[in-house]
Amino acid sequence: MITMARISQYLQTMSLVNSVAVVGLSFLFLLIFLKRIVLSGRKMGSTSLPTVPEVPGLPIIGNLLQLKEKKPHKTFTKWAEIYGPVYSIRTGASTVIVINSPETAKEAMVTRFSSISTRKLSNALKILTFDKCMVATSDYNEFHKMAKRYLLTNTLGSNAQRRHRNHRETMIENTTSQLHALVKEDPLRPINFRKIFESELFGLAMKQALGKNVQSIYVEELGTTLSRKEIHKVLVIDMMEGAIDVDWRDFFPYLKWIPNKSFEMSIQQKHFRRMALMNALIKEQMKRIDSGEEVNCYLDYLLSEAKTLTKEQIAMLLWETIIETADTTLVTTEWAMYQLAKDSTRQDRLYHEMEKVCGFNKVKEENFSQIRYLDAVFHETLRKHSPAPLVPLRYVHEDTQIGGYYIPAGSEIALNIYGCNMDKNHWENPEEWNPERFLDEKYDPLDLHKTMAFGAGKRACAGSLQAMLLACAAIGRLVQEFEWRLKDGEEEKVDTVGLTSQKLHPLFVILKPRN
Ligand code: HEM
C-alpha cells in the first residue's frame, strides 16, 4: 500500500513537474517567438543597422574612471580617433552616445531632432535650473516655445538687438576708457583684461534684463547688502561652479535613496541665494515701474506680456539672460584677445583691414560685414576655443539612428562641439588658430554657423547674434585703440576651467595706445 501510495504520489508529482515543464517550455518558446517578432520588426526599421562601437570600461562603473579629469570633451575627442565619430560609453548605469563630427552632430541636432528633443539633467542642474525652467535647458514643449518667443522678441532677436545697441556702445566705451586710464597710470604695468571686460559685460547683462546696472542691493531673505562683486558671484560664478558639481547618484540612480547631504546643501544654498537675490532685484525694479518709469528691458516686457508666468518663472528667465550674456561672450573675447596679442602679424592685419573700411573712425556694427578678417577672427576663436564644448545631455525617447548606427531609446546623447570643431577630417591643422581659413570664398560672411560652436537646428543658440555683435565690437575697438602684447610668461597659460572653456588664468596684457 505504502509502495502504491508512493508510486501514485511519484506519478502525481511527475505529472505536476511535466505540466510545469510543459507550461515553462511553452512560455520560453513564446518568449523566443515574441523576441523574434520584435527583432524582425526592428530589422525592418532602424535595427538592421549596427550598434555603436563601445569604449571598453569596467563592470558597474563603466568608463567613469577614465573621465576623472574635468575636461571630458578632450577625452571624448581622443576616443573619436580610435572608435570613430560615434561611439558609446557607460557612466555607471547610463549609456551615453558621444557624437564627435560636424556631419553626425548636424544629423543628431537637425534630422533626428524629434527623437532626442528632451534633456537629461544632472541632479545639480535640476535644482539650479529650477527643474528645466529655462529656455536652454527645458524640453521642447509649449513652455520652451513661449519662453523662447519672449526672449527673442525682447532681448535676442535682431530687432531687439537693434534696440539694445546703446548698451553695447556704452559697454565698449567704458572698457576702452578704463584701459586708457590704466595705461596712463603706468604704461608698462600688465593689465588684467578680464577684470574690466567681465564687469562691463555683466553691467550690460543687468541692463538688458532689469533695466539697471545695479551697484549694490539689500537682500531681505539673506539679511544683508550685497556689493556689485557679490551680486556677480551669486548670479554667475557660483552658478557656473554649481553646474558642474557631481553627485555620484547621477550615475547610479538605483541608489538615489542614499542621502548625499553635503552635495544637496551646497547646491540648494546656491539656488536659495540666487532666488533671494533675483527677488530683491525684481522688487526694486517693480518700485520703478509702479512709479510710472518704464525701461526697455526684459523684466518690464515679461511683466506686461507674460501674464501666465509665475514669479519664480519670471525670476528664472531673467537670470537666464544674465548668466548667458555674462559668460560665453567673455570666454570668446578673452581668447580672441589672447590670440591677437600673441600674434602681432595677424593683429596688424586686422588693424589695417579695419582702417581700409573705417578710416580713422571707430568701427561700427554696420562695418562688420565689410571687415572679413574681423569675422574670421571671431569664428576661428569660436572654433579653436569652443565656449560651450559639450551640449547639455539630450535624452533619446524613441529608437533612432545616427551616423548609420542604431541608437536605442533610453540612451543619452553627448554632443561634443569641441570634438566637431577639432575634427581632423573637417579642418586642416585644427590645433592651429588660423583665421585665414574663414576667408575662403565658400564661407558666407553673414553665416553665424560656420563652426558647430552655436549648435544647430531647432535648439541652436538663441544668443548667437548678440554674442557676435558684442565680441566683434569689442575685438575691433580694442585693436583700433591699442597695440596688444602678452605679459611675459602668458603665452603658455592656455589651460581652461569650468563648464565653458574659460581661460584658467585671466589674460594679462601690456597695451600701447595707437595714435
Ligand atoms: C559665444 C557665445 C555663445 C556660444 C558659443 C553659445 C553656444 C550655445 C550652444 C552650443 C547652444 C545649443 C545647445 C543645444 O543644442 O542644446 C546654445 C543654446 C542657447 N544659447 Fe547660446 N551660446 C553663446 C552665447 C549666448 C548668449 C549671449 C545668449 C543669451 C544671452 C545665449 C542664449 C542661448 C539660449 C537661450 C539657448 C537655448 C536655445 C534653445 O534651446 O532653443 N547664448 N548656445
TrEMBL record:
Keyword Transmembrane helix attributed: yes
Classification via InterPro entries: Cyt_P450, Cyt_P450_CS, Cyt_P450_E_grp-I, Cyt_P450_sf, KO_chloroplastic
Cellular location(s): Plastid, Chloroplast outer membrane
GO BP term (any one): gibberellin biosynthetic process
GO molecular function, one term: ent-kaurene oxidase activity
Ligand binding (heme): 461
Keywords of the record: Heme, Iron, Membrane, Metal-binding, Monooxygenase, Oxidoreductase, Plastid, Plastid outer membrane, Transmembrane, Transmembrane helix
EC number(s) on file: 1.14.14.86
Cofactor or coenzyme needed: heme
Membrane topology designation: Single-pass membrane protein
Annotated transmembrane regions: 16-34
Superkingdom, natural source: Eukaryota
GO CC annotations, alphabetized: chloroplast outer membrane; endoplasmic reticulum
Enzyme class: oxidoreductase
Record family assignment: Belongs to the cytochrome P450 family.
Function recorded in the entry: Catalyzes three successive oxidations of the 4-methyl group of ent-kaurene giving kaurenoic acid, a key step in gibberellins (GAs) biosynthesis. GAs, which are involved many processes, including stem elongation, play a central role in plant development.
Name the UniProt record assigns to this protein: ent-kaurene monooxygenase
Organism: Durio zibethinus (Durian)
Lineage of the species this protein comes from: Eukaryota, Viridiplantae, Streptophyta, Embryophyta, Tracheophyta
